[in-house]
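Late entry, evening session. Most of the bench is empty. Finally got around to the prediction I had been postponing all week. Sequence below, unchanged from the version circulated by S.P.
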Amino acid sequence: MASRIKGITIEINGDTTKLSQALRETDTQLTTVQKNLRDVERLLKLDPTNTELLAQKQRLLAEQSALAADRLAQMEDAANHLDSSQSEPAG
């Protein structure tokens, strides 16, 4: 019988604490923005014509987009760093 792979663990030979810390901070900020966005959505269900809430929703969506782009940039930097460190000869 064939065995199923339930998960893959990749060990990176290096220190990833700075990356983990930066990603954790970004994730915390994203979670906060998502919570605030849910609150605004609930309030908009009660009063959909409230322009202040609509403006706040737009600001939160812009902030969420910026944080997601920042997280993507951090992940791309980490991937580029990993690629460059693998291409260097071990010495």
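Two things to note before I forget:
The domain at 17-85 is CATH 1.20.58 (Methane Monooxygenase Hydroxylase; Chain G, domain 1).
The radius of gyration is 20 Å.
Will write this up properly tomorrow.
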